Amino acid sequence: MPKINQNYSKLPGSYLFSDIAKRVDRYKSEHPGNSVISLGIGDVTLPIVPAVTAAMHRATDEMGDAATFRGYGPEQGYEFLRETLAQQQYISRGAPISADEIFISDGAKCDTGNFGELFDVDNTAAVCDPVYPVYVDTNAMAGRAGDFMPDGKWNKICYMPCVKENGFIPELPKEHVDLIYLCYPNNPTGVAITAARLKQWVDYALKTGAIILYDAAYEAFITGDLPHSIYEIEGARACAVEFRSFSKTAGFTGLRCAYTVIPRDLKVGGTSLHAMWSRRQTTKFNGVSYVTQCAAQAACLPEGRSQTMDCIRYYLENAKIIKDGLSKAGYEAFGGENGPYIWLKTPASLTSWEFFDKLLNHAEVVGTPGSGFGPHGEGYFRLTGFGSRKNTIEAVERILTRI
Amino acid sequence: MPKINQNYSKLPGSYLFSDIAKRVDRYKSEHPGNSVISLGIGDVTLPIVPAVTAAMHRATDEMGDAATFRGYGPEQGYEFLRETLAQQQYISRGAPISADEIFISDGAKCDTGNFGELFDVDNTAAVCDPVYPVYVDTNAMAGRAGDFMPDGKWNKICYMPCVKENGFIPELPKEHVDLIYLCYPNNPTGVAITAARLKQWVDYALKTGAIILYDAAYEAFITGDLPHSIYEIEGARACAVEFRSFSKTAGFTGLRCAYTVIPRDLKVGGTSLHAMWSRRQTTKFNGVSYVTQCAAQAACLPEGRSQTMDCIRYYLENAKIIKDGLSKAGYEAFGGENGPYIWLKTPASLTSWEFFDKLLNHAEVVGTPGSGFGPHGEGYFRLTGFGSRKNTIEAVERILTRI
User: Fold this and answer.
1) Is the Cβ–Cβ distance between B226 and B194 less than 8 Å?
2) How far does the CA of residue B326 sit from the closest CA of chain A (Å)?
3) Strands A368-369 and A365-366
4) Can you give the three-state secondary structure of B114-144, one letter per residue?
5) Which of A48, A252, B131, B266 has the fewest CB atoms within 10 Å, i.e. is most exposed?
6) B314-355 per-position pLDDT tens digit
7) Of A56, A64, A123, which has the smallest distance from its Cβ to B291's Cβ?
């Protein structure tokens, strides 16, 4: 009989979104006919833009024609897409990344999760608190997190508090860490990082030998003069991997395309992470649909870029409506200017779940309790700009008049 | 500084297909103008059928319309596709599998590779020899294979010889094994398994507590009265996981869709593998493109099924042309009747690579040396039915007249 991976049995249940759904369902069944508006949504809602669907139709026709059919593509992704990304996302911003350092994949969630395979179990991972749960859970599955403790933390993970007092940018760790997960613009806080602060992290990693796993899935939402890529920071090529996604950038949550950047000179004790990831992907992955890669390229080319940026501006305007409305009413609201998320301090020292219930029962508005993202998320609450304009305006109105 | 996963450094280079390409390139540069025909190809060549491209166009239009746009889909796959598969691939063949036991993914390579994550490092995997290299390499990456020895084998893997003397169906292991990889119809030998022989494996697994990882990626090529699924065998629900793919079934190598079946009652020491895989996929995977899932469903519905089966018959007819032609000329040729591969015994005790060179230099035909698939592949050679009819006929003619 096989021995199973016992680390799975240590994972606590993943109940955040099902708990939310249960409370909402109960409220709706007790108040039939009432309309509940969700600002908890972490998914895009605008359709795929015309330039991208046009590319998908063309690619579909190519796949249906013997003269242009394509079978297995390169595991690393088609060069046409990698070249477009290198030029548009990196070279044009002064970040020295070449096409052969980009690996196309079907999701940043997959990549951030799978990337841990390149490392030994015996490493210390550092994560922001609150945090996107995938970083922690995938380390736990690999046995790198130790045991889950009553305080809601894994005993071998280094948690870096991100609270309003530090502007939601963590302090440099005092203890030794090997792998540092950073995500900016951040989910869930919606806050971006300055080049100066990011430089501190790059310098720290270069000094200590740590590797930064930089999740830039929300870079398209940056409006200020802030780094979109960690490779805009000098020295980052020698200490950082970057994860990008088309999910929120171009509305691809249902189409699945992302990419991971690994500089050729990024080495750990002489071992190339680029070579290791290449071996991992050629062995365990078979590339992304040709149709999807054509769609992704179309989202980068001028017409598609212009159309997808209109969507980003729509979501950012929603975020501004929420933030401005709530701020004027006296709420402490963070983020929302360079990311789709607004991170609210709950009023009157309510816990995250108490505020959730109050918002649902009085304003019929749904958000996400901050405590679901980690212990230091307690007392915070996430709202998003991904709803419709009409619902966003009405939800803010309800909060202001009914709470 | 992080410690890297040292198992990667134990992996020997993966040179089979690059070595083949190098020799072919050298021959071509020395004989400019000559035409070399490849029967080594392991990829489909016929375009996506009209019923499937029609579904992709429809799904693309849905994604471009706010009223029908879909964001994140269920990680396990859309129910419309899982229901179609349960009914068409399992229930209709008397295999008791329900839709909620099917997990849609982007490739059987990913799934067979990633599935090992559910098990401890300390397990013994058994593989056929010769074998699809992914089973071995992914176990090696996880540290489950031990060390790579001079005889071309990993010292903790149990190799089960598949040679003409046993009809390319391995004997039951004499030593203790935990995880058994079986693939029928087989890559590379092209041979299928009977229900009676498969029943022996199921009974063995039930008796010893081993888990069978059954790769049925080529089931659509079965023409005889043979099991398409391991779940057609009584008892398999309690000991087997099954991997399926649209790659060779419907020409999806460039579109990426596959599925893995895990019965709800399949447990290892009380732990549900279905629950573990569900946790793994919801944490590290974000589902398959909606467009691709619509395409996959269309390939299963009557019109698409009829069109894709025409493609399968085309490849099988190619395989028959190769097998009949070479058999009449005195070659010992196996497989090809229930799978797209023909497994040739090399003539005159030539090694696989000696025969490769002879075929290339004299007949200008390219195949795949059997030794590339494992030590017991030595003295064998793989040809495939995936070429065009014209090239297939000419390649056989060349072999018969020039060798």
Assistant:
1) yes
2) 28
3) unpaired
4) HHHHHECCCCCEEEEECCCHHHHHHHHHCCC
5) B266
6) 999 999 999 999 999 999 999 999 999 999 999 999 999 999
7) A56
